[in-house]
Give the backbone structure.
Amino acid sequence: MNNRDLTELIHRERTAVLVVNARSRSGARHFYRIYDALQRRGMEIIAAYPVRDPSRLRDVMQRAINHGSHLVVVGGGDGTISAVVDAFVGTDAVMGIIPLGTGNSTAHTLGISQSIKRAVEAIVRGAVTDVDLGKIGDDYFMNVVSIGLSAEAARNTPDRLKKILGKIAYLVTGARVFLRQRPFQCHIRMDSRLVSAKVRQVVVANGRYFGETLLSPEASIHDARLTVHLMEEMHLWQMFWRLFRFLVLRKPGLTGLSPISATDVRIDADPPQPVDIDGEASATTPVHITVAPRAVKMILPPEKHVEASNDIDLAA
């Protein structure tokens, strides 16, 4: 079914299944707010799942898609969206997003408001759009893969600290990690280009945002390309200032070196490094990262749907 027909069908049916990660930063608190907000806007919730055990998210999402509604509304952060997005690939099921995480990179990339009321309004009035996904092995991801400093920081930042400090928690943990982390030798093949360098971090982005800050202004989640960023070795004060500018002041320039655009990325590191996928520690180098064009259907705010259509036309 084409996206225009799907959009009209969703607007006509006005039904949805709701899945909320109740372990996300504000999921448990906002589950009933989302439920009520959707109902007040005329959506019939035919099934609802407040998921308190994140390990059950994928199974619950498959059940949600099998309920028969064309629209599944997902409440959670980047890790939640990345965990469930695989279930949507190759189906006509459409994902609507209510951002509830700490960074919400995916929501920023898609132009979805952090306000529950506005995010619900975007779902009710929005249009279905095809969105690219990244792929690492057999696992799809929505926004970024990071290796090195930020992956270690994400792995070592306690959930309680994130709830108290929000994005500042990553700055505090990142400084601690930097003191014990050593630069590592990295070999990266990007399409036909090979780069070998000693780095602190590698970021491979499908989307444009890393948390609330614009990471790749030139990137698009509709252009069938990835963007690779390298962070070179630096002093502690330089790293702290760069992270502060990026996380707190929201200034681009996290990684320092010019980004490289590619469709196929292979990364090996010595010594092996942890790999963070959309905020969740999930693998270890070496890794092979590709892009899956137009792999999933999402409902975007009307104005973002127009932008996405223009991007798709340019990429075609």
